[in-house]
Amino acid sequence: MDFPYTEELRGRFTDRLKNFQRQSHDGTDGSLKRAAVTITLIDDGDGQAAFVLTRRTPRLSSHAGQKALPGGRLDGDETATQAGLRELSEEINLHLGPDAVLGLLDDYPTRSGYVITPVVIWAGAGAAMSPNPDEVAKIMPIPLADLIRPDSPEFITIPESERPVLRVRFGDDHVHAPTAAVVYQFCEVAMRGRTVRVDHLEQPVFAWR
Question: What is the pTM of this model?
Fold first, then answer.
């Protein structure tokens, strides 16, 4: 299945996100910190849509070397949208305005103490990116077509939890929740036009801290 990077695709995703009744999570009691991540849609160079995944540098104090969506903690009174756009600018030098935002997915509470709000962004034609070496070791565009495959997603049982661990495959690689939860819900809501919830899906034990 192809996903040409066109205005028609942008309109389809926008409509599906607009009609999606997202679920928010109340983290205002201070027990969970608020953060935003982005599903940033780009042209893969061959006219097909892809999203931006990064590999974090090994020097970071948390989740060093792991694959992640661009994002981070909200600063002050920032909204998730503002934080997502700022993190794109800081992490991969991609500078976009609010008009690039297509919509939001469900909040996802993590084992490491955050509530993540996913922001879906359309970077537009000719988007230029470069990694900030203090935060990002590598930028990895993942074709959307690679998310539509029979061996993904995977739901894995672990002894530490009654909840299934989610894993999403692409190419010869994979990611676990929480990144996998955001990617999986984007695939179901925006790409397939289905309403699927993911806050019940577990993360592997190494992501609990």
Answer: 0.93
